[in-house]
Each structure stands twice: as C-alpha cells, then as structure tokens.
Design a protein that fits this description.
The chain is 27% helix and 15% strand. With 413 residues, it is of the alpha/beta class. The chain has 2 domains: 1-250, TIM Barrel (Alpha-Beta Barrel); 283-356, no CATH class. It catalyses: Hydrolysis of (1->3)-beta-D-glucosidic linkages in (1->3)-beta-D-glucans.
C-alpha cells in the first residue's frame, strides 16, 4: 500500500506486470485497494485514497479507467452503529480518510464495497438475533425500525440498509452498495452450533433467491444488488477457529459440500440439496435428429451458463456410460429442464431437445423428475466442454462463476 501511495512509477509497473498480461482474457472489472483496512492492526487507512488515485492514473494511461473500476472493501466494523438500520453511522475516527474516499467513489462512479456476515451477528448474539432471521427464513419474526417503520424480515437487508443510512447521513445517498463477501460456514467448532451444511445451504439458497428477484431492501425496494458469495472452496490450511476453514461450496478435492439452485426460482430440499420441480411425469432428452455439433453446443451451454450439475456424466460416474454425446446431452438437457420449470422453452436447446413421458433412467443413472433428489457427492458444478477436464484447475487462475446480478468469485492459488 505504501509503495502504491508514494510512487506512481510503482503503480504503473504493478499494472504492467499484474493486470495487463491477463486482460482482457481474464474478466477483470474491479480493483479493490486494500481489504477491510480498518480491521488491520497497523493503521494504513490514510494510504488508501492516495493509492486509489495512483491506480486510477495508471489505468487511465492504459486506457482502462472506464473498463476497470477502483474501490476498497470494508467490514461492517466501519460503522459505529448499525441498529436500528436508520441509525447507521460511520465511526467518526475514520472521517479523515472516509470522506475523501467517498468523494473518489462518486467521482468515478464506483460502488461502496462491504463484506456482510449475518452469521457473525447470530453467533455473537444469539439471544438478540434469531437463526431464522439470519437465514432469511419465512418463519423469522419481523423486526421493525422504530424510526422509519420499515419492516425487516432478515439480517442481510438490515445490514445493507445500515450502510445506506450511514452514507445518506454524509450526503452520499447516490452511492451504489456492493456486497463483496457474504456467506455461511458449513462446519465449526463445538460452540459454533450454527455452522452446519444445512444452514450454509439454506442461507446461500435464500440469498440467491432474494438477490436474483431484485427484491432490494426495505429502504431501497426493487434495487439490484451485486453480491459475491464467500467462498468457492473450503480453505483447509487457513489458521484460526474451525469455521474459518469451512466457508466453501466445495472441498479442496473439488467435490461439492452441498448444491445450490442458481436460478433462484426452485424449491430446495435442504437435507439433500435436491431441486424439486413439477415435471408432471415428463423428461427432456436429446433429439435423434440433432447434429453432433448442435448437441455439443447444447451440452456445453447446459453444463456451463445453464448451471447444470454435470458431474454424473464424468468418467467413473453413474451416467458416464454409454459414453456418447447423445446420452450425455440427454442427461444435461433433462437436468436443466427439471430445474427451470419443466416447460417447452426449457427443453428447446435450439431444437435439439424433445420432451418424453418415458423415464430415460437406466441402471444406476437416475434422471431428475418431479420431486426427485440430486446427490451432491463428488459434484463440482463445472462446465463440461470439449478438451476440458473438471477435475483439474490451472494454478494462479482466478475463477469467476457469475450470474446477473449475483456473482461468486474465488482465486485458486
């Protein structure tokens, strides 16, 4: 941080070596200068804004200042008060760097980045924050802000609005808020009773549904929110308490801990992760008249942007045999079909999919149907494409799975 603040030449060199060789092949949209700097034992917050300006200058020289946005991530600890949300206020001890930073963000149309963790609010004060409230559960008791009368059904919205009201108090109400980290641990120490796979799946499933539906928050209803889920993998070598190592959707061996409905539309069996649909006794399979090229394109799409779990058609898995394009495409087409309403549109695939009333399941290969359950065992949820092996990652590759407006990101090193 110090070198980035003091010398423009250092920033130019950093950009040349660390960003330009990988852009645009790697989709880089944001650079965060510092991460939760107010939590650092060494106070470096005064260095943030000068460093941000130098990075912006370097990007401008490279002609990327309108393509890559600069901001800085913060913890909720940057607030001195977060409850009720309308009383949200920034800690006055950070005023010396906060106002210039907010002015920089407005000037460059950059978002205010914040890491939000309802899990910690529950874990640290279970008598005041119920588990249902933290998990977006419909059974949670509403919390009413006494100053505004706004009704909060979950902790996530309350935390976002506390930031919004804090920004509004400083006359920065137009700043967009981006949640750069949120999630729930799937395992914890004995005293961390809330850290379970079921709770992690429930939180992230409800979060996705909440965000993709553009629900907004009570203070800003209907407003789109960009959210990053933390994290892609469990970090088995990370120090600290047990939960610190267990925030991932996947184990380090790339097998899934639980599955998620990325569409935000399906109901999820919390015990199994299975997407439950209403197929009315129909399945979707590959058309016998489709060309191999069209089938391959459809398979690639289903297992990629379509967010289908295609682990079952990988080598040694139940649906790998027969090892034919038509068989693999049928399994992927049907999975997408069942997860997305089981209607004609969901079985189209450019005319390569057809609906059938005959169950295509065979041996140990079970095709999803109405009310069926999907196993998460050895599931990587990675796209299956020609020449791509989902069991292998390149080192030093920053992997981004995204959907609008929710994204999930993690760097694999």
């Amino acid at each position: 941080m110090c070198c980035l603040r003091q010398y423009q030449s250092n920033v130019d060199t950093w950009l040349k070596n660390s960003i330009l060789p990988y852009y645009p092949a790697t989709m880089i949209t944001y650079i965060t200068v510092g991460a939760e700097v107010t939590e650092s034992p060494v106070n470096v917050s005064a260095l943030v804004v000068p460093a941000m300006r130098n990075v912006h200058t370097a990007l401008k020289k490279a002609g990327l200042h309108k393509k890559i946005t600069i901001s800085s991530t913060h913890s909720l600890g940057i607030l001195s008060r977060s409850f009720p949300p309308s009383a949200g206020a920034f800690n006055s001890s950070y005023a010396y760097f906060l106002k210039p930073m907010l002015e920089f963000l407005v000037e460059n149309q950059a978002p205010f980045m914040v890491d939000l963790y309802p899990y910690y609010a529950y874990q640290n004060s279970p008598s005041n924050v119920s588990l249902n409230y933290a998990l977006f559960s419909p059974q949670s008791q509403d919390v009413i802000d006494p100053n505004t009368g706004l009704v909060y059904t979950n902790m996530f919205d309350a935390q976002i609005d506390s930031i919004f009201f804090a920004l509004m108090a400083l006359n920065f109400k137009t700043l967009k808020i981006m949640v750069t980290e949120t999630g729930w641990p799937n395992k914890g120490a004995a005293k961390e009773t809330g850290a379970t796979p079921d709770n992690a799946q429930t939180y992230n499933t409800n979060l996705i549904r909440h965000v993709v539906n553009d629900s907004g928050t009570p203070a800003k209803p209907g407003e789109e929110i960009d959210v990053y889920i933390f994290s892609l993998f469990n970090e088995n070598r990370k120090p600290g308490i047990e939960s610190e190592r267990n925030w991932g959707l996947f184990f380090p061996d790339q097998s899934s801990i639980y599955s998620l409905d990325w569409t935000g539309r399906g109901n999820v069996d919390i015990m199994t992760g299975g997407n439950i649909t209403n197929a009315n006794g129909t399945w979707c399979v590959a058309s016998a008249n489709a060309s191999e090229t069209d089938l391959q394109n459809g398979l690639n799409w289903a297992c990629g942007p379509g967010n289908v779990d295609c682990s079952a058609i990988q080598p040694s898995q139940p649906c790998y045999q027969p090892d034919t394009l038509a068989s693999h495409a049928s399994y992927a087409f049907n999975s997408y079909y069942q997860q997305n309403g089981a209607n004609d549109v969901a079985c189209d695939f450019g005319g390569t999919g057809v609906r059938t009333t005959k169950d295509p399941s065979y041996d140990t290969c079970v095709y999803m149907a109405a009310g069926s359950k999907m196993s998460t065992t050895n599931s990587s949820n990675l796209p299956v494409q020609s020449g791509f092996s989902p069991s292998r990652f390149d080192k030093n590759f920053c992997l981004l799975f995204s959907m609008l407006p929710i994204m999930i990101a993690a760097c694999i090193v």
